[in-house]
Structures are given as structure tokens and as C-alpha cells.
Design goal:
The chain is an alpha+beta fold. It is built from 2 helices and 3 strands; from the N terminus they run E-H-H-E-E. The chain has a 3-stranded antiparallel beta sheet. It is globular, with a radius of gyration of 13 Å. The relative contact order is 0.26.
């Protein structure tokens, strides 16, 4: 397994992993599926703001991802 900083080219793989969890479970703090453009923007913003956006991968592809933000409101906090 390899951990590395995410790049905008990872947006599709992140969406492919994340959106089924958003759509089919209650395990996230959001109810809206992520778009490729939105994820590309988030990855770029994390880089510009010196925050981390990281992925874990192996030979099979993306295993997971993580990032962080200041606390904010959203459906998961109700």
C-alpha cells in the first residue's frame, strides 16, 4: 500500500469510491453525491491552502482517501 497526496487526476477514482457510500448508506456527513469537478476543486483548494488531501492505493487502485476542514454545518451534523 502507498500513501500519497491526491492530485486532480484522482477525482474520478475518489468519486467512484465515495458516491456509492453517500447514495446507499448513512455513513457519511453528506447526502449529495460528489462531482468530478467538485472533487478536482476540493483537491486543488487543499493544495493551495496547505491542507492535506491524501489517498491510499495499491496495485488494484484506490483503497481510501482523507482530508480535513474546519467544522462546518451540513446534514450530517443535524
Amino acid at each position: 500500500m502507498k500513501l500519497r497526496a491526491a492530485v486532480v487526476q484522482d477525482a474520478q477514482a475518489i468519486a467512484d469510491l465515495w458516491n456509492p457510500v453517500i447514495r446507499d448508506t448513512l455513513n457519511t456527513f453528506t447526502t449529495e453525491e460528489k462531482t468530478i469537478v467538485g472533487l478536482e476543486t476540493a483537491i486543488s483548494a487543499a493544495d493551495l491552502e496547505n491542507r492535506g488531501y491524501f489517498i491510499a492505493e495499491d496495485a488494484t487502485g484506490l483503497l481510501g482517501f482523507c482530508t480535513y476542514f474546519q467544522f462546518r454545518g451540513g446534514p450530517g451534523y443535524r
